[in-house]
Amino acid sequence: MIETYIHRLAAWAPGIETPGEWDEWALGKREILSETKTPELTYTDSTFRRRLSQISKMSIQVIHDLLPIKENTKILFFSFRGELVREYQLYRMLMEEGALRPAAFSLSGFNTPVALATIAFGLKGGYSALYPANNSFLSCIKAAQAALFSGTSEELVLLYADELVPEDCRYFFSEVPVPLAFGFILSQKNQPSSIPLSSLKNLENDTPLGFLRQILLSGSCSS
Fold first, then answer.
1. Distance from C-alpha of 14 to C-alpha of 84, rounded to nearest angstrom
2. I need a surface site. Which of 77, 86, 134, 219 has the fewest CB within 10 A?
3. What is the DSSP string of 15-67?
4. How many whole angstroms from its chain centre is CA 163?
5. What is residue 114's three-state secondary structure?
6. Which tens digits make up the pLDDT trace of 137-185?
């Protein structure tokens, strides 16, 4: 079996921003806050970031923290809910007004977060936006490996993000997911501080939070 390696981890969530805070979270000493707080993105133009959602801002911040990446590096974006807040607003608009306003629709696509990240930094390696099959985060990993083994690139970025679920939608969740974004570079080359993907346990039943915690507790994969 061909080994793949994880390196250069970056993550952002409300209440946890620095590498030290993420280490504390992995040890159970800090919690992700269920808030709509977002990264400031002061390195972008104010007109660009003004209308961005929480998931898009978190995704942009994670890609920013992974830079620089190679010119031809592709990004694979995964999310269980995508632009949920905007989609919910569109459904309400459709029910209440019977039509959708173009301005409201423009940033509601599932690929919006990763598309905006590539625009923000002028990235030209391309991207794919995929929903995890069977609600399994392992399918994200398998899709990333498949893309890597296709031979088009020696490495790629895997980006995961989900935003805070609107209060009116929480009825559908037995446990309301926390807002979170993280990403890393997946490579066929073993580099300093890399983590072999095969060293992670129980991926079949792991969640994005569990997967991130395993990486952090490994003590490697410096950002």
1. 17
2. 134
3. TB-SHHHHHHHHTTSS----S------TTS-HHHHTT--HHHHHHHHHHHHH-
4. 10
5. helix
6. 888 888 888 888 887 778 999 999 999 988 776 767 666 789 999 999 9
Query: What domains appear along the chain, each with residue ranges and CATH number?
Result: 5-83+110-217 (3.40.47.10)
* 3-state secondary structure at position 205: helix
Element (H, E) at 157: strand 155-162
By DSSP bridging, strand 127-130 and strand 195-196 are unpaired
Walk across the sheet containing 180-187 and list its strands: 127-130, 74-78, 155-162, 180-187, 5-12, 195-196
Compute the distance between CA of residue 103 and CA of residue 133 in angstroms, rounded to an integer: 31
Measured between alpha carbons, how far is residue 220 from residues 8, 31, 166 in Å?
9, 22, 35
Low-confidence ranges of the chain (pLDDT < 50): none
